[in-house]
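[job 4471] stage=fold_predict status=RUNNING
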Amino acid sequence: MHYRSSLALLLLGLVGCTSNEPPAPVNMSTPPFTPAVTTVTKTDAEWRAQLTPEQYHVLREAGTERPNGKAYEEFKHQGSGSYVCGGCGAELFSSAHKFDSHCGWPSFYDPANATNVRTREDRAFGVTRTEVLCARCGGHLGHVFKGEGFNTPTDQRYCINGVSLKFVPKEAGKNAP
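[job 4471] inference complete, writing C-alpha cells
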C-alpha cells in the first residue's frame, strides 16, 4: 500500500508541469502565430540526431523532466545571461526575469522575447493549463500559471523544463540582461 500511495503522490506532483500527450502540430501561419518569426522545420530523425533523449522527450513529445534535476540545479547557480531554445536557439527568457518558485523547475515571470514564445490550451490529465512553446520550432517548454501570488511584476510563473533551455552567459562589457 505504501508503494501505491507514494506513486500516487509523485504523479499528482507532476501534473502541475507535465503532459504525456504529444504536442499538437503548431500552425505558424494562422493566429496567434502571425508574427514574422522564422520557423525551424526538421524531420523526426533530424531532431533525434540533434537532441539528447531527454531533450527530445521534452521538446518534441511534450514530456516533463523530473523536478529538482541536474538542469534545475545548474539553473539556480547561473548568473546573468539569456536562455535560448535547446532545439533551435531562439531567445526565450532572460536571467533578469528568473525567480525561485521552489517548484523544482526553472521559473520566469516573463519571457525575454515574447515573439519567440507562444502559448496554447493544454487539457492533458483532465486539467486545463496553458502550455508554453517555442514559436520558431514548436518545441514544448513547459506551462505558465497566473495568479499564484508570487511577488513578481506579472504574478505569472513560466514553469519551464531546464533541458529545453540553453544558457548563454552575458558577455563581459555588454549590456544584456
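[job 4471] summary: The longest strand covers residues 140-146.
[job 4471] exit 0
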